[in-house]
């Protein structure tokens, strides 16, 4: 009887454990859910979107702010997404908005880049559903969102809830300098109808594909990502591989050795998984496309430009962003070093792991020489330019942004690793990921992990690099 009782108790413990695990797996990390249905083709898409938002902000919340990034592609936009004239222009036209099934007041503000939606006073921890109907016109261009040849890039096309901080929603304008995006993680259910012969790459996992009279209808799901992007092109080929539970897909047009190119991605994933913490998503897509820059990061998908000068460097850098922007969010508008600097450093660290210390040193020297020359020129010209890393992208030229957010930031992280030792520095970064997963982190969160891993206060060294006081040329004299 005693043995039988023990057996029953073990069964009960097992059942409780299973339910506890299920609850843990089902627990939502994100307080925003998007359900988006897209129809149309070529340049014009009709979209229906419902956004369910849990109020984690304040009691009696009375409005919501959505970013309308697509309106930066208008010909008359004040804050443009482009620097040169486009073949044709794009925009988003809001046709209707309702809140919990009732019509509501809404306004387009700030050069039509912000959608301000009035809502009934919403208590803390209560949810509300905003339903929108709108039309997106894609520009003809090779930038983030648009149509180029047979390729359609649907990026930043949908109204995206702004980040709430310091008792208000952020209202940031578009700029061509850096990445003018700042977002919480969210869950996505996206359905798109595309031509029958389409090859579709997306941020989500394909749940269902159905043939319809209008083409193919694909349904995708993604959880806890910061944005959702779709690339459509009938000419794309795909090479697949796996790292742990993650399927890695490389979409390309022409590649003499696609398996070798895919291996760059697999190796990067393996290194970053080991050093920074496991990639938590089921897929990662690397998509070759006609793009004006070398690459661009999105949730579970990255662009790689057709004409990128160094495809390995671009792939690794954009994959690093899945940790530094994706898993751990940061304010890329005001503190770009937290994602760009760490992504650049992580690319160098990949080189160290794959090719050895000499490759790391040579790559770091090239970055250091480039930045040091820039700083010396400013000194010679007596420009008194602010060389702080921690500056808003609105205050920078593209050249300044590259020098500070990319190069000087990389030098700072390399210096930190040298000072702390590789093991302690990697421990700090892995804990930074662990303790800020799906959140938005700032410099203080990173410094806190650096201090704990180092066993001493290293914040002064970090702040010296971030500020304008200690110039690299002075440090090297």
Strand and helix map with partners:
Blueprint: H1 2-26, E1 32-41, E2 44-54, E3 61-67, E4 91-99, E5 102-103, E6 106-109, E7 114-122, E8 127-137, E9 146-148, E10 151-154, E11 160-161, E12 164-165, E13 168-169, E14 186-194, E15 200-202, E16 205-212, E17 215-225, E18 230-232, E19 237-243, E20 246-252, H2 258-276, E21 283-289, E22 295-298, E23 301-305, H3 311-320, H4 340-355, H5 357-380, H6 398-420, H7 422-436, H8 443-454, H9 459-466, H10 472-476
Parallel strand pairs: 1-14, 20-21, 21-23
Antiparallel strand pairs: 1-2, 2-8, 3-7, 3-11, 4-5, 4-8, 6-7, 9-10, 10-18, 12-13, 14-17, 15-18, 16-17, 19-20, 22-23
Helix pairs in contact: 2-3, 2-4, 3-4, 4-5, 4-6, 5-6, 6-7, 6-9, 7-8
> Do you know the CATH topology of the domain at 30-193?
Immunoglobulin-like
| Order of adjacent strands in the largest pleated sheet | 5-4-8-2-1-14-17-16
Q: Which spans have pLDDT < 50 for at least 5 consecutive residues?
A: 1-27
Strand content: 25-35%
Describe the oligomeric state of these chains in a short phrase: single chain
Number of helices: 10
Shape: globular
């Amino acid at each position: 009887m005693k043995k039988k009782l023990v057996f029953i108790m073990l069964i009960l413990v097992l059942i409780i454990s299973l339910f506890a695990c299920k609850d843990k797996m089902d627990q939502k990390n994100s307080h925003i859910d998007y359900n988006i249905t897209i129809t149309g083709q070529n340049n014009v898409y009709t979209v229906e979107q419902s956004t369910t938002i849990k109020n984690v902000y304040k009691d009696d919340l009375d409005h919501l702010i959505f970013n309308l990034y697509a309106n930066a592609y208008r010909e008359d936009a004040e804050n443009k997404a482009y620097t040169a004239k486009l073949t044709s222009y794009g925009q988003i036209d809001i046709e209707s908005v309702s809140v919990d099934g009732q019509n509501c007041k809404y306004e387009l503000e700030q050069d039509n880049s912000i959608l301000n939606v009035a809502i009934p006073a919403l208590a803390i921890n209560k949810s509300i559903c905003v339903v929108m109907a709108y039309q997106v016109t894609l520009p003809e261009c090779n930038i983030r969102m648009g149509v180029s040849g047979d390729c359609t890039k649907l990026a930043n096309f949908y109204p995206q809830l702004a980040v709430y901080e310091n008792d208000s929603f952020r209202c940031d304008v578009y700029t061509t300098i850096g990445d003018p995006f700042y977002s919480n993680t969210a869950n996505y259910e996206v359905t798109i109808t595309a031509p029958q012969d389409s090859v579709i790459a997306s941020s989500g996992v394909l749940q269902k594909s159905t043939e319809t009279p209008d083409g193919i209808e694909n349904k995708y799901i993604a959880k806890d990502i910061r944005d959702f992007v779709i690339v459509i092109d009938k000419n794309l080929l795909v090479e697949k591989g796996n790292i742990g539970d993650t399927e890695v897909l490389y979409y390309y047009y022409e590649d003499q050795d696609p398996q070798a190119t895919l291996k760059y991605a697999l190796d990067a994933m393996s290194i970053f998984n080991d050093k920074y913490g496991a990639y938590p998503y089921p897929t990662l897509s690397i998509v070759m496309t006609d793009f004006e820059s070398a690459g661009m990061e999105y949730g579970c998908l990255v662009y790689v430009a057709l004409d990128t000068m160094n495809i390995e460097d671009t792939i690794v850098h954009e994959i690093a962003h899945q940790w530094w922007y994706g898993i751990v969010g940061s304010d890329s508008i005001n503190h770009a070093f937290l994602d760009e600097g760490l992504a650049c450093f992580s690319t160098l660290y990949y080189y160290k792991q794959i090719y050895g210390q000499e490759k790391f040193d040579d790559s770091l020297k090239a970055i250091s020489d480039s930045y040091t020359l820039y700083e010396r020129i400013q000194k010679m010209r007596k420009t008194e330019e602010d060389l702080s890393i921690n500056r808003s992208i609105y205050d920078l030229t593209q050249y300044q942004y590259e020098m500070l957010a990319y190069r000087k930031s990389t030098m700072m992280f390399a210096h930190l690793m040298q000072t702390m030792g590789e093991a302690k520095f990697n421990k700090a970064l892995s804990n930074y990921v662990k303790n800020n997963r799906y959140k938005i982190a700032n410099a203080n969160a990173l410094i806190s992990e650096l201090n704990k891993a180092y066993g001493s206060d290293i914040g002064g060294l970090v702040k010296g690099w971030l500020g304008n006081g200690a110039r690299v040329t002075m440090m090297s004299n």
